[in-house]
Amino acid sequence: MYKATIFVTLKESVLDPQGVAVKGSLHSLGYAEVKDVRIGKRIEVLIESDNRRKAEQQVREICEKVLSNPVIEQFRFELEEVA
Amino acid sequence: MRFAVPVFPGSNCDLDCVHAIEDVLQEPVEPVWHQEEDVSRFDAIILPGGFSYGDYLRTGALARFSPVMKGVKQAAESGKLVIGICNGFQILLEMGLLPGAMLTNDHLQFRCEMQTLIVENVETPFTCKYAPGEAIRIPIAHMSGNYFCDPSTLAELKQNGQIVFRYAGDNPNGSIEKIAGICNRKRNVLGMMPHPERAIADWMGSEDGKKLFQSMFAYWKENCGAA
Amino acid sequence: MQREQTVMKSKSAISEPAPEIIREQKLFKEMGLTEAEYEQIIGLLGRLPNWTEVGIYSVMWSEHCSYKNSKPLLKRFPTEGPRVLQGPGEGAGVIDIGDGQAVVFKIESHNHPSAIEPFQGAATGVGGIIRDVFSMGARPVALLNSLRFGNLSSPRVRYLFDQVVAGIAHYGNCIGIPTVGGEVMFDDCYEGNPLVNAMCVGILNHEDLQKGIASGTGNPVIYVGASTGRDGIHGATFASEELNEGSEEKRPAVQVGDPFMEKLLLEACLEMVKKGILLGIQDMGAAGLTCSSAEMAAKGGQGLDLNLDLVPQREEGMTPYEIMLSESQERMLLVVEQGREQEIKEICDKWGLQSAVVGRVTEGNRYRIFHGGKIVADIPVNTLVDDAPVYVREGRVPDYYQAYQNIRAEEAFLDVSPQEALDKVISSINTGSKRYVYRQYDHMVRTSTAVCPGSDAAVIVVRGTEKALAMSTDGNGRYVYLDPVQGGRIAVAEAARNVVCAGAVPLGITDCLNFGNPEKPEVYWQLSQSIDGMAEACRILETPVVGGNVSLYNETKGEPIYPTPVVGMVGLVEKREHITTSAFKRAGDAILLLGETFAELGGSELQHALTGEVRGRAPVCDLEKEKALYKVVLAAIQKGWVSSAHDASEGGLAVALAESCIDGQKGAEVTIQTSLAPIVHLFSESQSRVILSVPDEYVEEVHQLAEKNGVACSRIGRVTQEAHLSIAVNGTRVIGSDVAELTKRWEEAIPCAMNPSSTLTN
């Protein structure tokens, strides 16, 4: 069994209104050092598999196909073997 | 002219669309459960608004994998009319039948109100009954209507006359160049955030949505309606 | 005896306090039971109750489920009428609207959860009231709400307001039921204890009417919907206590609403209703599985066995206590005839919902809970429902009441210029436009909304008929605080006036009684007196109470909120052409004022906006006059004489005129003759007044109609094309404002208060 921890974020070129709003709030709280905030999703997926490479391939596929929208989003993931 | 209105779990404007066709055109219209793959018996498809699959993951992202969307794709490819309204527009973007993507409104709030639109292109099957540049009043109701595409796509949209509706006045959601609705290059697939089915009677506050459905009917009658 | 032994052993096995320990250490107190109540339970069972049983009694006997503090008072409400198909006691009230159709509606509070977690608290409040309506077999067609917050100058209040509205929007928009109306008021007394009351209106065909009842020995009890988790355990008890410093920690896992799941549940249940499969159906709302199953069994005069091992669970290792008391959302309990389980399963499968047979209806009255093959609770079911304690408390007239009776509130304002007053009041957050709120609600989905939020009442048309339904929520806590009898009358009368102004005959009400701690004699007095006022109004105006909710213990740091009964009124518009709004429509129309104006500024918006105070006498509401007024307004509307109708209430005549100008973007030239000071006449909140705009040719008819019914009617001006409001009193012009300027002040009141550091966003 493998556990994939997937991070989906908006591409750099795409405006993130939530991030902008949070940055504004942080500034008004006095955290002037905060230069940028980007908000994304973290998705955990458990995959029944004994082959790491195959699991990795599957995770990539579902990220491309379902979990992210390539027009606006990018993704990366970490894979770890779990009991 | 036979209309199909695919119903996904979480659709909530499906019946409104059915009623709009009944009231405006008095033509046959059927809700089609999303598990049904074959929609070949219909002449046009209306993807309704709502929150298909709760809009979980991304708006419209999961609906595109429903069996009915295979049929919708075939219909679009064969030149039949396909219109996606609000969530329907988001689904069309997710499945790539229209270019671009939808982001959360820039003000981060849901926005529901009567909105003035400018009809930018009347040479489409959906707008042929409108006057060029006509200002029409059609309600909006969405959380994610902030249309986005990259500069080259935008240039292409402009060049091909694919921008069908723009918001007049203040931009209600941050949409790029105030885009409210776009069509594909063949112009038989339209996606729009505003809800024409909510503007078909005087008591609704506007009747400007009627002409959209009447346009579809006129186009069909002229091009395919011999039978 | 044998069985009772087993009951106790199974409990001690899973390390919950043993029955003796519960008694010795008085652990029942933590669940909100008093010593006397605990002793009563021992008497009813003939033994010591175990942990699960104490939990079950504590939620069933909480105020939220048993109305133990309010029951004797609620009996004063008239609940019957020729059109009433279902009064209080089921999920929602039902009133006939002709053609074999009925309207179903109810209002409910979610105050305490919203104070702790405003977004989810408000969202799940909406979800709960929707389930109450569709569990009656009705298609929900509209949502309304009534909200109270502290002052928006506080960042915490802004957060609560923002999140409550977003939570309501989230749930209603997603499930696809239009939020068509409501009200929002701000006052310091709600600072730590906001009020979030949600109302749902549905429509059904008579033959589809359902009940929450378990009948037929051997019939299966079926659980449908979301899995049970540890969220919201003891919510009903929590809702029946005061909020204090420890409330945030005490709150168990917050319930999270899933409107998508509820949409599926709604469609699946309505499909079962249409196919006639159900014998009984009840929402698992407050007190979850316990309340729904116990009430259904008690109503059916049957016993019930529940096997908790079969209940779908989201978390591992849940105890019977946790499963029984969980308030996980989006769950329904059904009873069907034996042999029809498969039909339920097929519908659930289609909608992607899980379902499970979790119990049986039994002979007798035992309510037995099984877990891990053992009985973990065994209770005579009627004792949970019928033997709940009832408290008649002592009331005492508060000191302030007598003092206020002698104050003439108007004296403080005699030097204020009407122009300055209007500018201030129109831009106060209470009077100002609520567009900031309702533009976040999808109020048009289902394409039936004929009058959107912003007018006196919302109106939705009933497809396939000429009929429409008008609806409104109203309740002014200031009046009730100053005088609970008058305030109670006004709450009902104003709600009725609002639907009448929309062209509807008032049908009935649902009420949400938001009060402080009833153990305080002054609060109990407020509760008792205001119920008297409301009951009287309901009787005279022929609007029975068909359902409602009581929310007590609304206090923060020991201070009660204003007593705030909220009335949800539904009215029937016979023909679509009768639908009327408050906006001035035609230049040249005469402006008529129906009703009389007295010096009544106690608890007024003028007083609050200018001084921040609420003192003096509340306006007096003469119910016979009110009834005569309705008759005139309705008849005039139905005859087609009326262009616009608007209730003159908070802010008085001046604000009502301004609002009609703003809504219609027209102007008005008004001339008033009065013995009162101009400021008093223009801002008095005297009741039973309506402003009509009427084409010239009908003015005489309206006059005669009013005279015939004994209603004062005076022509006070005319509607003008030029959007300018001009008001002269006794020959002197006291107000002259461009409607554009008024609109700006009115529109920006809330956005500016929400964004104190900058001007408007957008």
UniProtKB/TrEMBL annotation, chain A:
Enzyme Commission (EC) number: 6.3.5.3
Organism of derivation: Thermoactinomyces daqus
Gene3D superfamilies: Phosphoribosylformylglycinamidine synthase subunit PurS
Keyword Cytoplasm recorded: yes
A GO molecular function held by the record: phosphoribosylformylglycinamidine synthase activity
Catalytic activity: N(2)-formyl-N(1)-(5-phospho-beta-D-ribosyl)glycinamide + L-glutamine + ATP + H2O = 2-formamido-N(1)-(5-O-phospho-beta-D-ribosyl)acetamidine + L-glutamate + ADP + phosphate + H(+)
Pfam families referenced in this protein's UniProt entry, alphabetically: PurS (PF02700)
Metabolic or biological pathway: Purine metabolism; IMP biosynthesis via de novo pathway; 5-amino-1-(5-phospho-D-ribosyl)imidazole from N(2)-formyl-N(1)-(5-phospho-D-ribosyl)glycinamide: step 1/2
Principal place of residence: cytoplasm
Lineage top rank: taxon: Bacteria
InterPro entries in alphabetical order: PurS, PurS-like_sf
Gene Ontology CC annotations of this record: cytoplasm
Protein name per its UniProtKB record: Phosphoribosylformylglycinamidine synthase subunit PurS
Keywords: ATP-binding, Cytoplasm, Ligase, Nucleotide-binding, Purine biosynthesis
Cellular compartment(s): Cytoplasm
Family membership: Belongs to the PurS family.
Keyword presence, ATP-binding: yes
Taxonomic lineage of the native organism: Bacteria, Bacillati, Bacillota, Bacilli, Bacillales
Function description: Part of the phosphoribosylformylglycinamidine synthase complex involved in the purines biosynthetic pathway. Catalyzes the ATP-dependent conversion of formylglycinamide ribonucleotide (FGAR) and glutamine to yield formylglycinamidine ribonucleotide (FGAM) and glutamate. The FGAM synthase complex is composed of three subunits. PurQ produces an ammonia molecule by converting glutamine to glutamate. PurL transfers the ammonia molecule to FGAR to form FGAM in an ATP-dependent manner.
One BP annotation, GO: 'de novo' IMP biosynthetic process
Automatic annotation (TrEMBL), chain B:
Matching InterPro entries: Class_I_gatase-like, PRibForGlyAmidine_synth_PurQ
PROSITE patterns xref list: GATASE_TYPE_1
Known function: Part of the phosphoribosylformylglycinamidine synthase complex involved in the purines biosynthetic pathway. Catalyzes the ATP-dependent conversion of formylglycinamide ribonucleotide (FGAR) and glutamine to yield formylglycinamidine ribonucleotide (FGAM) and glutamate. The FGAM synthase complex is composed of three subunits. PurQ produces an ammonia molecule by converting glutamine to glutamate. PurL transfers the ammonia molecule to FGAR to form FGAM in an ATP-dependent manner.
Domain of life assignment: Bacteria
Record's subunit section: Part of the FGAM synthase complex composed of 1 PurL, 1 PurQ and 2 PurS subunits.
GO annotation, cellular component aspect: cytoplasm
GO terms for biological process, alphabetical: 'de novo' IMP biosynthetic process
Catalytic activity annotation: N(2)-formyl-N(1)-(5-phospho-beta-D-ribosyl)glycinamide + L-glutamine + ATP + H2O = 2-formamido-N(1)-(5-O-phospho-beta-D-ribosyl)acetamidine + L-glutamate + ADP + phosphate + H(+); L-glutamine + H2O = L-glutamate + NH4(+)
Residues forming the catalytic site: C86, H195, E197
Pfam (any one): GATase_5
Entry protein name: Phosphoribosylformylglycinamidine synthase subunit PurQ
Main location group: cytoplasm
Pathway the protein takes part in: Purine metabolism; IMP biosynthesis via de novo pathway; 5-amino-1-(5-phospho-D-ribosyl)imidazole from N(2)-formyl-N(1)-(5-phospho-D-ribosyl)glycinamide: step 1/2
Compartment annotation: Cytoplasm
Keyword terms of this UniProt record: ATP-binding, Cytoplasm, Glutamine amidotransferase, Hydrolase, Ligase, Nucleotide-binding, Purine biosynthesis
